[in-house]
């Protein structure tokens, strides 16, 4: 049985547990489609279809109305969070909760995913400022093609970790040459006092609604936030005729 362990759950004051929709759906092999105009999401797996709308408690499961105690919401990092138990069970998984460890176990026929409550966030003065985020965005755009930069390591050292610099040197730049403006789409989601995730997206499609998401992992190193890795994700949404 495959297994994974991640700290992703948000525990609300009401003791409700929320989890990033895209993460749990991907782990359970479900497809997620975002409808930008209606701010709604369709999750499908096999013959099960779930339709949710941001901030609305009413959802549809195979066309039938279901009321959530907590609606889907956008939280830190721009991720859509949904009730852990509802989505997991609707997609055919079972849930168990370990109060002492503050962990939930999601179990299917061939997979077990253990997720824990998100760890402590940095104190306010340690969080990345908008000015710093803009600096990192500008340097990522410059890193699309490093062929004209003489001292790559020295140039990017104030903004990128050594690990990330090694990566872009090896690949001679980032995987895609898209330029992103503004950093990020939402303020970072802090996964600990020294780590965070931030995402940006741009539209690149014509006949279909296609966005290219640039997901950055940040680390707090020597008193400043730096980029530690970048991943690109293409998201396609058909445009209704």
Automatic annotation (TrEMBL):
Chain ranges of the Copper amine oxidase-like N-terminal domain: 13-106
Matching Pfam families: Cu_amine_oxidN1
Cross-referenced InterPro entries: Cu_amine_oxidase-like_N, Mao_N_sf
Membrane spanning residue stretches: none
Protein's UniProt name: Copper amine oxidase-like N-terminal domain-containing protein
Taxonomic placement: Bacteria, Bacillati, Bacillota, Bacilli, Bacillales
